[in-house]
Specification:
This is LysR substrate-binding domain-containing protein. GO terms for molecular function: DNA binding; DNA-binding transcription factor activity. InterPro entries: LysR_subst-bd. Belongs to the LysR transcriptional regulatory family. The strands form three sheets. The chain has a five-stranded mixed sheet, sandwiched between helices. The chain starts with 6 loop residues before the first strand and ends with a helix. It folds into two domains: 111 residues, Periplasmic binding protein-like II (D-Maltodextrin-Binding Protein, domain 2, 3-Layer(aba) Sandwich), CATH 3.40.190.10; 93 residues, D-Maltodextrin-Binding Protein, domain 2. The chain contains five helices and ten strands, in the order βαβαβαββββαβββα. By secondary structure, it is of the alpha/beta class. The longest helix is centred in the C-terminal third of the chain and has 17 residues. Helix 1 links the parallel strand 1 and strand 2.
Length: 219
């Protein structure tokens, strides 16, 4: 059964998307509603917003991928609105032998499995949801689901590269983050169709997202 939604957000696999969406729904209240939160690949976020399936999309760029990502957004009739910059961090289990390091390089992690979110087959490496995704790894596992990725990191003593913004959601509870030794910066924000204003609900979501990012982002 297909239910027509009145507000929808598509996003990469970030915990702050979920928390922000939950806060928005709780603040709006109401006896009846039909909303949607969609975890997508980067191309999926672009397609959903460009095609009108979602009101906006939440994603990130890095200082190394921004030009290519923005070109793809422009070609799809979308624009990226930056909310905050952050620094990449290594997410790893609380029991990991490297968890107490003051910072980590990718070389420090080369003996451990690297978990990452799988993208569409034809997507460029710039669409990866992890900074420095182009660096070769000897051990790597692709996932399509955030909970599975988190569970595998813990089970395999692995790691991923993330924003480090792990807030309020159970499937990030088993992980800690350590600063990654890199000059690359993350640019976190949202995408919308060019020339279209956000709805009242959309603006409420964006305002809440910005507050969450400013509260929890690490540098």
């Amino acid at each position: 059964m297909t239910v027509e939604t009145t507000f929808a957000v598509s996003g990469q696999h970030y915990l702050f998307n979920v928390q922000t969406f939950a806060h928005t729904v709780l603040a709006l209240g109401g006896d009846a509603y039909a909303y949607a939160l969609r975890d997508r690949t980067t191309q999926g976020v672009i397609d959903d917003v460009a095609g009108g399936k979602s009101d906006l999309g939440v994603l990130f760029q890095t200082s190394a991928t921004a030009d290519e990502v923005n070109a793809a957004l422009d070609a799809a009739g979308l624009e990226f609105v930056e909310l905050i910059q952050s620094a990449p961090r290594v997410a790893l289990p609380k029991s990991h032998p490297m968890v107490n390091a003051s910072s980590l390089s990718l070389e420090d992690m080369e003996d451990f499995p690297y978990l990452y979110f799988e993208q569409d087959e034809d997507s460029p490496v710039a669409f990866a949801e992890e900074a420095l995704a182009s660096v070769p790894r000897a051990k790597s596992i692709a996932c399509t689901d955030r909970a599975s990725l988190s569970e595998l990191i813990v089970a395999l003593n692995g790691y991923t590269v993330t924003s480090g913004i792990l807030v309020g959601i159970s499937d990030g509870a088993g992980l800690n983050t350590v600063p990654l030794d890199t000059d690359v910066k993350l640019h976190l924000g949202y995408v919308v169709r060019k020339g279209e204003a956000l709805s009242d609900i959309g603006q409420r979501f964006v305002d809440t997202l910005k507050k969450n990012l400013e509260k929890y982002a690490r540098f």
